[in-house]
Amino acid sequence: MKKxxxxxxxxxxxxxxxxxxxxxxxxxxxxxGPGESLSSIGPCAGYRVSPVIGFWxxxxxxxxxxxxxxxxxxxxxxxxxxxxxxxxxxxxxLFLAPELRIKxxxxxxVLSFVNKATGDTLPHYRHRASQFLLGGAxxxxxxxxxxxxxNFFLELTAGIGGKMRYIKRRNIPxxxxxxxxxxxxxxxxxxxxxHDGTPYVPLGARLTWKLxxxxx
Length: 216
Hints:
Blueprint: H1 2-20, E1 24-29, E2 38-41, E3 43-48, E4 53-65, E5 73-88, E6 94-115, E7 120-145, E8 152-170, E9 177-178, E10 196-200, E11 203-210
Antiparallel strand pairs: 1-3, 1-11, 2-4, 3-4, 4-5, 5-6, 6-7, 6-9, 7-8, 8-10, 8-11
């Protein structure tokens, strides 16, 4: 009798795993990317190892400063996100993930530069610059199956974390440097502060498509 019960349990587990078809891949995109402050576009992909564990990444091309952040012009660059995900709940649609975020872009800016030795100032000096941002966050997300589309999902995510900003400026005359103007609201983004750490709250929405597993 015990052997029969054990056999039934093993068959039930095998049937459940077969229905889930793990592992499998997903592909998707960020529909809100073109509407972000630094407009971007690019694909995302995930690999669901098991009902509990998955990995997800996104790469996007930054092509425009939509809201004229800091007056930057001719913005070009990329953004990369990576999340190892841990799925929760009976349906395994809720997940927690530490997120690695890398952003690198170049732009044209107009700032004033000061030569401390001579006291001279270059007002409104146009130059090229680049920024590298490295960040990390703890993210919570949920997957919702779209009506009538068995393999299509909407993913919503929110989190909290911090990031560091590193800036390089080009074609600046020798002896001149950009002077940071301190003050203002402490949590406000300091877009031109080099080696500056700030908190950030990542919010996102992704449309994803589950790719069917190929049976051997």
